[in-house]
Amino acid sequence: MIGWQRMSDFFVKHFGDEPEIACCAPGRINLIGEHIDYAGGQVLPLSISLGVSVAVRATRQGLLRVVSDEYPGQGIVTLDGSTAQDGPAGYVLELARMTETTSAQIAILSDLPVGQGLSSSAAIGIAVQCALLALKPDAVMPSARAVCRAAQRAEHLALGTSCGIMDQYASMFGSPGNAILIDTWQETHQAVPLDSLAGCSIILVDSGQPRELSASQYNQRHAEMTGALNEAKRLCGGFNCFREKAHDELLTIAEAMPEPANRRMRHLLMEQRRVGRFQDGLRERDLKMLGRILYAGHCSLRDDAEVSTPQIDTLVEMLCSTPDCLGARLMGGGFGGSVLALFESPPDEFLMAGLLRDYAGETTLGGRWLQVEPGPGAWLQSGRGSWRSVAEWL
Ligand code: GLA
């Protein structure tokens, strides 16, 4: 995560003054529970030690002046609340609106690899809002959950992605050494210790595959899944959350549905079951079982949710036949992005280099890998060494 000194230097370079305060919000990986967070499922992500840092200073000009290290050539973008904006600028504007801020200097820095499905947009959503809220300590503060919901809404409105709430929750409520079990129906969460993974390595391999169509196809899957869920609800006489009904009863209903609703529904039910089993595997320290669950999750994302690609499938198969790799699967929204792999011990550099060479040979794509370290959820910083957890502050 970018430290205070770098944030401050960047801020001074562009705005001339020191920032008043900054919020750092982490990216996330997801252990299990994919494409079910918008359908009331439970998911098991964790916040990582890389993320987005947003430094801010209040002004009186009635304008938002924004600079981001992701667009180095662009310099400062000036946003006036009355003008409609598209894309990233529109997103920042929407986030500022959610905090009722019309005047501030905002610098956004990130050390999250872009386009790898580590959820930089959710981290921006949390960090921008919390930094701006921290500029008005006398205002009535929203709850941390309300900030997550507002960040999700801003993504829907400004970026056009009908995302669930997993990424924002993970960025806000994550804690070192733990995954976070999120009940996306109740909007509650609890820490799940990862002690049993001590000595193992969580590896993320970037497939090198661009995700240009991701937003539209993601939204399509969202519509198909929720459509299938509504149909199942009708067929079995109604429920609030699908988890109220017996798994087998819903599975029987799903099997009788037409294509592709049957497979979408099966993914939802089986993925929810995998989230439960994964926790059993962690409790029992059954590493082989965890690996099997990951791979089964991949097969379901490939065949039932249909969010994988042939290149990602190739990468998953290669990883799964690598010594010490317990299991692997596509991670995140899909249609490109990264593969998550669980290794019994830190993977051998030469072995991984060879794997990526073979992958490039088969797909012409250049992959990269990194080892992921769990880190804390979002925090505020007002100088070097002074920091405070956002979830505890709000
Ligand atoms: C993206 C979305 C999340 C979630 C995942 C798939 O990361 O932002 O809400 O739906 O895809 O599990």
Itemize the secondary structure elements and their pairings.
Layout: H1 4-15, E1 21-32, E2 42-58, E3 64-68, E4 77-79, H2 87-98, E5 104-110, H3 120-134, H4 144-159, H5 166-173, E6 178-183, E7 188-193, E8 201-206, H6 214-235, H7 247-255, H8 261-283, H9 287-303, H10 310-320, E9 325-331, E10 338-343, H11 349-363, E11 368-371, E12 379-381, E13 387-389, H12 390-393
Parallel strand pairs: 3-5
Antiparallel strand pairs: 1-2, 1-12, 2-5, 2-6, 3-4, 6-7, 8-10, 8-11, 9-10, 12-13
Helix pairs in contact: 2-3, 2-4, 3-4, 3-5, 6-8, 7-8, 8-9, 10-11
The structure holds alpha-D-galactopyranose.
Residues 34-35, 37-38, 119, 163-164, 166-167, 332-333 line the site of alpha-D-galactopyranose.
